[in-house]
C-alpha cells in the first residue's frame, strides 16, 4: 500500500512555477486519479499535455488564463484565500490537448486527472455554476461547493468538490465509504483530499480504515497535505480554533457517487 499522507514537496520547475504536489496514479496505487498542485507567480506560465487523461483545472487562489490549444479562457479565479468561502472558477479539458496556464497574479492551481476513454468538449465551469449547500447538524456541519458533481455532464469519470468544516466539527462523518461496485447501493470511487487550515499552522485528524481493519491509519494532517483514500471509511476531525478546508477528487469506473455508511455509526444521522 502506498503512503496515504503526502506532504508538500515545493519543487521548482522554473523561476515562476513550483510544484507543491505531483501524484501520479501509479505513485499512489490508484487506478483512476492523478493530482497536482502548482504555485505560479504573476506572469508565469505552465504547459503540459493531457495525453490519455481528462483534466479539471481549479483556480484555487489567484487569477489565471487557460488555453486548451484551441481556445483560451481568461480571468479565471475569484479569491486570494480559500477561506473567503466563495466558489471559484474551474475548467474541464479532455484527453489529447495541449494545456497552457498563465498566472495574472500569484496563483495556486490544482489539476485533477483521470484516465479517459473518449475526447470531449472543453467546458468552463464558472464559480456562478457551482451548486452550494450545507450538510449535517450539531457538530457534524460542513459547507460545500460542488464543482463537478456526478450530475455534471462535462467529465467522463471525474468528480470534484470543495468542503469547509468549521472548528470543532467532523466531516465525511459518520464514517462512509464508496469502494465496492455494487450499484444502486454503493459505487466504487477512489478519492484524494487536499487540505488547508485557517490559521495555516493548524492541523486536522483523518482516519482511513476498512471493516476488517487491514487498512487502519489515523493521520495528523497539516496545511497543504494530501490524503489518499484508495478504499475504506475516511472521516475528518477539525480541532477547536482552526477551520478546515479540503478539495475532494473522486473517480472510478462509473461516475456515480453512492456511499455506504458504517452501520455502527449511522444512527448519528437521525438523532434528535
From TrEMBL:
GO terms for molecular function: 5-deoxy-D-glucuronate isomerase activity. It is an enzyme of class 5 (isomerase). It comes from the Bacteria. Keywords: Isomerase. The keyword Isomerase applies. Its EC number is 5.3.1.30. Transmembrane segments: none annotated. Pfam families: KduI. InterPro entries: Deoxy-glucuronate_isom_IolB, KduI/IolB_isomerase, RmlC-like_jellyroll, RmlC_Cupin_sf. This is 5-deoxy-glucuronate isomerase. It comes from Mammaliicoccus sciuri (Staphylococcus sciuri). The gene is iolB.
